[in-house]
Design a protein that fits this description.
3 domains; alpha+beta; Beta-Lactamase; disordered N terminus; five-stranded antiparallel beta sheet; about 375 residues; 15 helices; 12 strands
């Protein structure tokens, strides 16, 4: 173990915080931690104990044959697991305090699984407990080394506040990244152009439809990441409308105008982004949401987009649009020439797939997709 505890601890903490967004830095931080406490290797495991599923597994060694052997023959009889599962967040377990050397010499796990791989003693830590999710970190020592001591426990305990905080932030950052990916996928499917700009019309995000609109030889133009218009009067209108929407007090005003005459004209709707919204909180300056569409674009919802977003069958899509248009399930049954029982089955499937509990919720959901 290193004799320079504090400098080593600062290095590990720095790597762990960098690891919130970087997988490699997180791995390096845990690896440096393992080295500091004299570990031969490490294994971090995140599980949902209610679902009985492994959410993440990070190990310093990737011996697939050894892992398969452990899973098949020893996982269910691993005497360390019940003790580890009882740990509170931030607590440390040293296995020699629970099992004697005599027990280890007679244990199938220690004698037949760990010893042939050159391992013996374990130090386990509980990094995170959030609902049914638990995150463990374990270090193993070579079998010819002494067990983990109070010195290593103290080192781990001193590092624990930073380790817990970094692990929690890393998990939340991962959740946000997954939510952002889902949101971007939905935005990419929209037939309208969607863009986020600051008060100077600098583009922070644009969906594929908006990118195509910007790339076409139309009224809008992008220069060095800034949205503008060829026509000076329309340019001034765009700038003033965006500026009116971007206010720090959260009192921004919305506006709609045409980008100019001709076939390439667009209807531009400018809306303020709520200052409490995640998009606004992640930027130092206020933002405005731009919705771009062709003046001749139909106002009705595109059935293909609705089916794609909600995962509906053709008949379910027709039913959804019928309800959104103010028709009843009975009206739909008559128009489709199907029985009332069949129509009710379709509405149940439609509500289940859309995540709605009532028809009113479904109608509200569809109306929220009528951008522009």
């Amino acid at each position: 173990m290193t004799s320079h505890i504090q400098p080593g601890m600062r290095k590990i903490s720095s790597l762990l915080y960098d690891g919130i967004l970087s997988k490699q830095d997180w791995y390096d931080g845990i690896a440096t931690f393992s080295e500091a406490v004299g570990g031969l290797n490490f294994h971090q495991l995140t599980v949902d104990v209610r679902q009985g599923s492994v959410l993440e597994s990070i190990a310093s060694e990737h011996n697939e044959e050894a892992v398969e052997n452990y899973d098949r023959h020893y996982a269910l009889i691993d005497e360390r697991v019940p003790i580890a599962m009882q740990l509170g967040q931030g607590q440390v377990m040293l296995d020699h305090e629970h099992f004697s050397d005599r027990h280890m010499s007679r244990s199938a796990l220690y004698a037949d699984c760990l010893a042939p791989q050159g391992m013996k003693y374990t130090m386990g830590l509980m990094l995170r407990v959030e609902g049914s999710v638990q995150q463990y970190l374990g270090f193993m020592r070579a079998k010819d080394q002494a067990h983990f001591s109070q010195r290593e426990r103290d080192f781990a305990s001193q590092l624990m506040p930073d380790l817990i905080r970094a692990a929690r932030l890393r998990a939340h950052a991962s959740d946000l990244a997954q939510q952002a990916a889902l949101g971007l996928t939905a935005l990419a499917a929209l037939p309208q152009g969607i863009a986020l700009v600051d008060a100077q019309c600098r583009i922070q995000y644009a969906n594929p439809t908006a990118e195509r609109m910007f790339a076409s030889a139309g009224a809008l133009v992008v220069q060095y990441g800034q949205l503008s218009c060829h026509d000076e009067s329309t340019k001034a209108r765009l700038q003033s409308t965006v500026a009116a929407a971007c206010t720090r007090q959260g009192t921004g005003m919305a506006g709609t105008f045409h980008s100019g005459p001709g076939l390439n004209s667009l209807v531009i709707t400018v809306m303020p982004v709520n200052t409490q919204h995640l998009l606004a909180a992640s930027h130092q300056s206020p933002l405005a949401l731009l919705i771009l569409r062709k003046p001749t674009a139909p106002g009705d919802l595109d059935p293909h987009v609705i089916a794609e977003i909600l995962g509906l069958s053709p008949v379910e899509t027709r039913l959804a649009l019928s309800l959104e248009a103010g028709k009843t399930v009975k009206d739909f049954a008559e128009s489709e020439k199907i029985s009332w029982h069949t129509a009710r089955t379709h509405i149940r499937n439609l509500l289940r797939k859309s995540g709605c509990h009532r028809q009113l919720e479904l109608v509200a959901l569809l109306q929220s997709l009528r951008l522009g």
